[in-house]
Amino acid sequence: MTEPYVLETRNLVKEFKGFVAVNDVNLKIQKGHIHALIGPNGAGKTTVFNLLTKFLIPTRGQILYRGEDITPLKSAAIARKGMVRSFQISAVFPHMTALENIRVALQTFEGNSFSFWKSGNCLNKLNERCMELLAAVGLAEFANTTTVELAYGRKRALELATTLAMEPEILLLDEPTQGMGSEDVDRVVELVQTAAQGRTVLMVEHT
């Protein structure tokens, strides 16, 4: 029997030394849809994200992924299951090229991050996939550009590409348009819509 929701929370609570940051949150995320948590600063949106991806441990409540209780799991195990997140700030390696950033993500996903001796064919395979991902976010021409030289909007697009390299079933985006001008916002919104094809997206956005 297919689970009606790909991600669900039940009475999720997070307390910090008596301060209740998240109180009795019940989410039901449908597969193949774009969902958003919208609210002002301090409303607990990012805290919810951190709970879902286990960067924080819930005080009480449950998190279910495809019907499985994943509350006890650690963040790396959840990512391997297909729930991958971005962060409020750009999380890329500034002194690597755009292509090298994608390659690191692909090596991590394939489990060969520490396999230093690889054949040329293997490296070529990774590079081809890197270029596909860069093209998907409009960065193919910047493949050999050092990330620190990219405009902010392009850095966020690169981060999206590294996230897609993990082949997520659920893509969690924490304020993907934060700090952007209107031109970059429109571009990133279009990229999110493209990324959402065939997967579920949950976003946090500030009102």
General description of the model:
The structure is a single chain. The chain is of the alpha/beta class and 207 residues long. The N and C termini lie far apart (38 Å). Helix 3 (98-110) packs parallel to helix 5 (152-164). The longest helix is centred in the middle third of the chain and has 17 residues, at 120-136. It has helices at residues 45-52, 75-81, 98-110, 120-136, 152-164, 182-195; strands at residues 7-16, 19-25, 28-29, 34-39, 60-65, 68-69, 83-85, 170-174, 200-206. The chain is built from six helices and nine strands, in the order E-E-E-E-H-E-E-H-E-H-H-H-E-H-E. It folds into two domains: 5-82 and 168-206, P-loop containing nucleotide triphosphate hydrolases (Rossmann fold, 3-Layer(aba) Sandwich); 98-161, no CATH class. Residues 7-207 form the ABC transporter domain. InterPro entries: ABC_AA/LPS_Transport, ABC_transporter-like_ATP-bd, P-loop_NTPase. This is Branched-chain amino acid transport system ATP-binding protein.
